[in-house]
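Reminder to self: keep the SMILES exactly as supplied, no canonicalising. Ligand is flavin-adenine dinucleotide.
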Amino acid sequence: MQVPAPFDYVRATSVANALELLERHGPEARVIAGGHSLLPMMKLRLARPDWIIDINDVAELHALTEEPDELRVGALTRHAELLDSDVVGRLFPIIHDAERVIADPVVRNRGTIGGSLGQADPAEDLTTVCDVLHARIVIASPGGERVVDMADFHRGPYETACEQHELITEIRFPVRPRAGSAYEKVERRVGDWAVAAAGAALWMAEDGTVADATIGLTALGLEGPAVEAAAVLIGERPSEDLFAEAADLAAAASSPIEDQRGPVDYKRHLAAELTRRVLGRALDRAAHPAVA
Amino acid sequence: MTTVEERPAREANPSATAADRPIGFGRIQRKEDPRFVRGKGNYLDDIVLPGMLHGAILRSPMAHGRIVSIDTTEALAHPKVHAVITGTDLEGLNLAWAPTLSADVQAVLATDKVRFQGQEVAFVVAEDRYSARDALELIDVEYEQLDPVIDVRRALDPGAPVVRTDLEGRTDNHIFDWEAGDAAETDAVFAAADVVVKQEMVYPRVHPAPMETCGAIADYEPIDGKLTLYETTQAPHAHRTLFAMVAGIPEHKIRVISPDIGGGFGNKVGIYPGYILAVVGSIVTGKPVKWVEDRSENLMSTSFARDYIMTGEVAATRDGKILAVRTNVLADHGAFNATAQPTKYPAGFFHIFTGSYDLQAAHCKVTGVYTNKAPGGVAYACSFRVTEAVYLVERMVDVLASELGMDPVELRLKNFIKPEQFPYANKTGWEYDSGDYEPTMRLAMQIAGYEDLRREQAEKRARGELMGIGISFFTETVGAGPRKHMDIVGLGMADGAEVRVHPTGKAVVRLSVQSQGQGHETTFAQIVAEELGIPPEDIDVVHGDTDNTPFGLGTYGSRSTPVSGAAVALTSRKVRDKARLIAAAMLETRPEDLEWEKGRWFVKGDPGAGKTIAEIALGAHGTVALPEGVDGNLDAEVTYDPPNLTFPFGAYICVVDIDKGTGKVHVRRFVAVDDCGTRINPMIIEGQIHGGLADGVGMALMEFIGFDEDGNCLGGSFMDYLIPTAMEVPDWETGHTVTPSPHHPIGAKGIGESATVGSPPAVVNAVVDALAPFGLTHMDMPCTPARVWEAMQGRPTPPI
Ligand SMILES: Cc1cc2nc3c(=O)[nH]c(=O)nc-3n(C[C@H](O)[C@H](O)[C@H](O)COP(=O)(O)OP(=O)(O)OC[C@H]3O[C@@H](n4cnc5c(N)ncnc54)[C@H](O)[C@@H]3O)c2cc1C
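Structure tokens returned for the bound complex:
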């Protein structure tokens, strides 16, 4: 059994209380949500917080609300809850695609969307999904609340706009008509982190051209969406050639590194292959939306 | 004689009612399972002794380095620390180095150098596990980093760093050269052959990765000098003897207890430094000391498996008659030669690489070398390197099939040893006991629908889709082994068994072997039941405690049923013979006038006049006037020295689909037809096969311990060392044939490792078959998406 270094533990009762505890226990205090990123690091003694502030009792972080123009997801929403939600599946099939391949049921039962975004692992899937869906992140701090978009929130591997004394409280996904989205990941085994993954969303115009599009890549060394790749789609009528062109641009925008999961050229090939696949599936879903 | 049976349909639970429960062989639920499924198993880490302290090991951060100094002052000052032990302390006790199972020595704690990342450097004993781990960080070790030997192909280069500077006069990393077969004869056949194919292949370093990691609790009682040692061990008796030899504690003062074991697969055969350190810790502190390694320690420092680079060659005629096989192997043994195998065989039973084929000649040469990697080597359900041998020959046969443009099944059928050739003396010194290969192969084809699969494949290929069908037909050699040929550190590979029938007719059987999940408590009860007619639930199986069981060498290499199972059958027969004498006295007749039916002796021609085993047992312990020379019990004991090994075999067919765009391999179907001779409990056999097949799929597709060029282990956690889940394996389709072993008392051959041995080549052959449109004839394991994609690009790169 791997055992962590000594630490103290406290349970927060509300967002305000959590913020207060963070302030009281200083810079070596860490929030714990599902614990599936933080605890492994603590056991390996790569993380050594003095204080653990457990937010699992904070009910206000644990809600899923459908508004006419957006879906609000509390930071403490578990992977499994996103996967179980019909509303999520109907509005954002990309989330279900991704959740199906995040870890395993044990991890999904505890791990949270707030923790995933907060951890910002370079192979983490929901950051890409949030990029693709233009999600906005609500951050609470002692001075009040602010809403940032993903471009401002996600600053790179293990780095976000949420400061150590702050809390992610909610993720907001805008709802727009004639949308389709999809995610596909290659993993060496079920439950493995991505060798590479791609996500895409398409919003169609009434005339059947692409009104708006985003493409995101996971574990491929690209921060933020593949903007140039998505740009070639806009205003165009979808076709295999068009998607192939976008896929090649996405691959060109990637800068993967070689590791045990594969060499650079393979990963770059996957960037194109997976982008092509998710664009096809997103288009299909935009054309045949799931009924409520 | 082979009997071919249809694949049994999924049956309803046959042990639901007592009336259906066979008294003897048959499908019964495992007696041990109620305690496991209710969470009442008793594993090493469940054991808590009064006053017990906890140990933790400081390990080397680098692959090769000289120890300049070790400062333990701060660790010793930790308020909860009771002792800190270093290599220097052990030198004082003459325990810094311990003999390995391969006539080498291994550092218990490093004194001069560290030789692999994760090697044991210091041991802390503290009041709890947390403090022990905290104190490790307070030990200050200064190292001088040395160049490591990581690439095994470079290990014998002149000028390569020398790993074993501790061994007197050692100037290189060479451990041994070992040969089997006749080189000249083989070369002559090759020189005259129409067709010769050659292929280099890597069987990567993998790890048994049992669910329960290794550990020990040592409880040394200073007043009477008795050591009770709880250990995760597959071989409690061998461990006791070795501890007596190494630590100088008299053997009768040592009791080794191996509680429930959460998987072994060979990982728990050897004696690890941690076990010895727990003992030293207990002697030094005067308290029981528990040491349990964590997952990374298990993966990085305990016995790995395989790590063979094999060059295979096959000589054949144009029409597909295989004439000879030869192979050269470079074997990476890591920093210490600590493989566990019979003394005479430094490459284990690798010389079974002639497989299931009738050859004119065969030869192998194996060269073992040291590198700066963890020691070990024979582990992971491999039957002493039969895994490597089967992989070599079954891969080579496919390479030949593709060279000849022949169907791989047809090529195998053409070359099988024929039933009338058994017992068959192969070209490397084995005598195969029995076999009838063709019906087994044909049954597998029938279950798979082989012709239809080939048709489907042709259609898919025409559409550009990648589907592959892989065959493997293996012959194992298990049940080591005859004492005239086989010993481990001088101990003959025999096993004892003891049966006692209690006065009320219930029984206890005591074994020298130790289950790690194989179901011994059920299988061995069924053997006694079959022989004596006592219901299995009335038979207690005792194992894993040297104070309560007869001596024997333990469970590995699929030897429990072939060796210990034979011992139990023969012991039961001794009891039966004795029961006859007592029954005759009770019935006032002559023993030769009695006839046996399961569970009772009766008077020939008068079935009503008889005595059951229970009645006889009561008679034996009661007041019956016993015949001359018969003492008043119904007990017996046997130590079984097997006359030969047993040779289980099987035909495996794997079907894969490969995603051309991503390289991802999907194992769609897997058909396994096994022949392990007499089948004691088909359900347990199937369980062993299911587990072994999953292991095999794991090795073929994902398992691999890699190292970077500095010797950092890249497989030190389950994030990096991947083992398959239920999602990666198909619904297994099993079938069987029965060709009993002629020399085994009940004809059983052993099944523990068949599937692990036989399945990797079936999967790899299927992957290579799927990739044939790319002109591929070989790729090395593991067939990860990236490596498969690279193979499609014409870069089937070896995995090191
Ligand atoms: C075996 C395994 C496999 C996995 N595979 C995948 C995978 O394939 N893909 C994938 O995307 N993820 C994977 N994960 C990660 C998993 O999804 C984690 O649950 C997730 O990354 C973190 O969520 P958590 O709630 O567990 O966070 P925690 O571990 O509790 O916290 C992670 C970090 O976020 C911070 N944090 C948590 N909540 C908040 C908040 N509300 N506000 C501010 N900071 C916060 C914590 O302080 C900590 O620094 C895997 C994990 C495991 C153990």
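Points to follow up:
The pocket of flavin-adenine dinucleotide is lined by residues A 30-38, 40, 75, 102-103, 107, 111-112, 114-116, 118-119, 124-126, 162, 167-168, 191, 193 (CB under 6 Å).
Chain B touches chain A at residues 45, 129-130, 133-134, 292, 294-296, 661-664, 701-702, 706, 714, 719-720, 722, 724-725, 727-728, 784-787, 789-790 (CB under 8 Å).
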